[in-house]
Write a structure and sequence with these properties.
- The structure is a single chain.
- The chain is built from 24 helices and 16 strands.
- By secondary structure, it is an alpha/beta fold.
- Strands 1-8-7-3-4-5-6-2 form an 8-stranded mixed sheet. Strands 15-14-13-12-11-10-9-16 form an 8-stranded parallel sheet.
- Strand 7 and strand 8 form a beta hairpin.
- Helix 11 crosses helix 22.
- The longest helix is centred in the N-terminal third of the chain and has 25 residues.
- It is globular, with a radius of gyration of 27 Å.
- Bound molecules: phosphoenolpyruvate and magnesium ion.
Amino acid sequence: MTFAQLGTGVSKGIAIGPVHILYRDELEIPEYALPEKFVPDEQIRYTAALILARQQLHDILSHIPANTPADIAEFIDTHLLMLNDSALARIPLEIIANQRCNAEWALKLQRDALVRVFDAMEDPYLRTRRDDVDHVVNSIQRILLNGPVHHGVQPAQEHPHSGHILVADDLSPADTVLMQHQGIAAFITETGGPTSHTAILARSLGIPAIIGLHRARDLLRDDETIILDGQQGWVLANPDEYSLQFYHQKRRQEHIQYLESVKNRDLPAVTQDGETIKLMANIELPTDIDAVHNIGAQGIGLYRTEFLFMNRISPPDEEEQFRTYLEVVEKLKGKLLTIRTIDLGADKQVDGGRHQTATTTNPALGLRAVRLCLKEPALFIPQLRAILRASACGPVRILLPMLSNINELKLILELINDTKARLTEQGIPFDDDIAIGGMIEVPAAAIKARMFLHHLDFLSIGTNDLIQYTLAIDRIDEEVNYLYDPLNPAVLHLIALSIEAGKSLSKPVGMCGEMAADPRFTRILLGLGLTEFSMHASSLSGVKQVINNSHFTQLSAETQKMMSTPDYDEFLTLLHRFQYTSRH
Ligand code: PEP
Ligand code: MG
């Protein structure tokens, strides 16, 4: 065994196989001046390359295997759209004419200009879209330079590398689709971000993948066997016999779990002793809904609306918001939609962080979420009106983030009532009985959950923030996030208090923080009495599997024992048994 390497795991799964290194050297772009009379020919040469690049993408589209998820083709379509856009179809022709330069150089200048625009964007997701620009530009450059077929991966009919783990500098979405077709077991890239299209595709296609493993092509050798963990992001080169056996076994277990999860997709979530558990999904964009239907979620437990407000100069107006919420309502076809009002501020600044002042040293403790909404009704009221209007068209609930103070809650409820009254005056329809819930994200709200719930219809526990505020750990600070512990007894106690508040007032309490999405915590949450979980669609099946193998009443008894011990060591012993040896 020689070494272990770490990158960013972006698509889970263990892969074991020989390495295939893909060398696609950096393209050297020539620059030369053109006499004016050659300009039209050069423009024709560029347009011909563009046509060929489009043809190649159409070929790839026709190679997409039948079992590939439907949305995959959209990634290739995006590249086709880029090839048709004037930024690549027209402007390089103008540069050739204006600067009298060769087509490769004109394309390089245009690529650099586009990349500068993407680099200036604040949103990491949009910033990674520059990868798409590079993939598309490279496909044209290779044709102009008369290079080999642009796909890094060989055409589908020859797959000498089936079962191999591909190692490359970078891969395009088109490469990723072909890889699945050719039976590539996993891939590693030296560059790329976790939100790149290639990473998203790897997850959709179920190909284990690691990205950002620097110098991987220098450190690994062609045909040597490696073990790769696409969740943890590590690679073990030249493994010994023991490691090979261990990880072959682990891979078999993963496969069995996967088959079970596919089977349980259409099953209801019911514990062995008959407790029905509601499973809902978290979404950020209307386009997330397809996955919600595919996985059989019962509705949306958390729609994070702030993404509609980010990466733009002015906030969306009431009409734009209404249209967006209506699109989600319609796509949900009668399933419940929980719209969270904007949670801007802290790590989700808009407008260049204009709400932060020189004195804002702790944005997470500053003007955020409902605090910001109360301070800026001109931002909040259009959203309330849009949500209320959408509630006339399907089942909608309102969820208020970051509650910490009952007086603040009362002010918001007044604002909602005023907004309803105005809509009534204007004869605009809405659901007058719309349920209004609050997020439990601040310890003060958890401790007095019953008092908050007295004014509300439901609660949703946001563990991402609740853990941060209970343990005083900035959730995005890498230096301290080793202390970020969902199983800390204080955190579990606050969760228990929130669930008990719901029971005593007979009102629903769910959880929409990441803790709800992790199957390692499902049994403990069931034991604490949680019966509503909301999570990203991709986690739902794994959590359901644990629920369907659990015994609610027995877990409840075990959890009560664990929660009532005053001794931390005993707490840990019970917690450990609970998580790993309890076979309910
Ligand atoms: C949470 O805090 O758990 C939550 C769901 O909200 P967000 O992650 O959007 O802050
Ligand atoms: Mg939160």
